[in-house]
Every structure is written in structure tokens, then in C-alpha cells.
Amino acid sequence: MERDAALLIVDLQNDFCPGGALPVWEGDKIVAPLNRAIAVFRREGLPILASRDWHPVVTRHFKEYGGIWPAHCVRNTPGARFHPDLHLPSDVTIITKGNDPEEDSYSAFDGTTADGLLLAKFLKARGIEKLYLGGLATDYCVKATALAGLMLGKKVAILLDAIAGVDLTPGESAQALEAMRRGGGVLIRAGEL
Ligand code: VGL
Predict the structure, then answer these.
(1) Helices marked H in 13-161 — which ranges?
(2) Which whole number is the average pLDDT over 6-21?
(3) pTM of the model
(4) Which residue of 22, 60, 82, 168 sits with most ligand 1 atoms within 8 Å of its CB, as the best mutation to test the pocket?
């Protein structure tokens, strides 16, 4: 693995998994491959980051207030917690996004660390040039994060067996993969790590 790489797990939260408020079909199936990826990054001593949607009760992101989504990942609720089977290490860097009631904040690059550092600044400070991405959802937050990272000049690899999509309109996840590939992203499997 490249020494300037990090693993970024996008929004693997209860509300995006079966039984949650905005479930992604088989969203929990990616937990096992992501745990294997976590083990690889830990073994290599490389950073592990996890983004989370962290919305206020009232936000324009939700249907009730003008958005397109049912309420989900309201901060400090069980639905906003990471999936309980995900083996996040104790030194994981959590990136929080969706705080702003005016913004959708699909991209983890809209988010900040606990110290209030924007993701791009954090990566720069740590010398991280390559992101391995997994999580939810392929056609929203994973796509937005991948494209934002590529725009910033980062290398991005998408872990095909560690993502799952909403497919609000059928085919959106396939289109998202194509957009990420076209933007310079590399599509690989977690097993190849
Ligand atoms: C997401 C829909 C709404 C995501 C977030 O994490 O991909 N999808 N909000």
C-alpha cells in the first residue's frame, strides 16, 4: 500500500442500513469487506477516517423542509450511529458533515474533524494524497466525495465490494461509478488491497 494512502469510510450509519430511516438495499453487506479493509490499513499503520451525516432536526435536506429525503441521521440519535458491527479503531478520525441546515453536504469534503479542520486541510496536514473509499451511498455521498477528492487532485480508489447505492432512479449507482471512473477514479475490490 502507498505510504500516503488513507481509508475513508463514508456514512456507514444505522439509518442508511436495513431497518433505518433511509435504508440502502443491502447496505449492511459492505460491513464485512470494510472490516477487512480496516484490518489491512491498521496492519500497515495507515490512517482510517469515517465520515458521518449529522443533521439537525430541521434542515432543508429533509422532505418536510423542502428537500428530497426522509429525516435521517439526526445528530445524537441511534440512527446516526455507525453500524455496530463496523470495527472502527479507537484512533479513527471522524469527519462530521450535514450540520448546516441550509446544505445537503453529500461530500465528506464538506465535513470537518472534531477540531473543526476541513477534510482537505486535514489530508494536507497529514500528507495524504490517496483515498481508498467505501461506504454509503454509491450514488450520493460516495460519488460526491470521490469527485470532490479528484477535483482537489487526490488519487481516489473506489472499493467496489464495499459500497452500495440508493438508486432512487434505477441505474443511478451504475452512472455514479461511470462518473467516478471518468473523473479519474480507479475501481478496485477490497480483496485486492
Ligand atoms: C446520503 C442520501 C441522503 C448518503 C445522504 O450518505 O449517500 N444519501 N443523504
Answers:
(1) 31-43, 119-126, 143-151
(2) 98
(3) 0.98
(4) 22
Question: Does the domain formed by 5-192 have CATH 3.40.50.2300?
Answer: no
Helix axes 143-151, 172-182, angle to 10 degrees: 10
Q: Could you report the per-residue pLDDT of 85-143, keeping only the tens digit for each?
A: 999 999 999 999 999 999 999 999 999 999 999 999 999 999 999 999 999 999 999 99
In ligand 1, the atom with minimum distance to the C-alpha of 137 is 7
Pocket test for ligand 1, best of 10, 24, 53, 104 (most atoms within 8 A of CB): 53
**Confidence bin at 191 (pLDDT 50/70/90):** confident
Please give the C-alpha separations between residue 11 and each of 60, 66, 115, 192, in angstroms, as whole numbers: 19, 22, 19, 22
The pocket around ligand 1, CB under 6 angstroms, is made up of: 11, 16, 53, 69, 106, 136-137, 140-141, 166
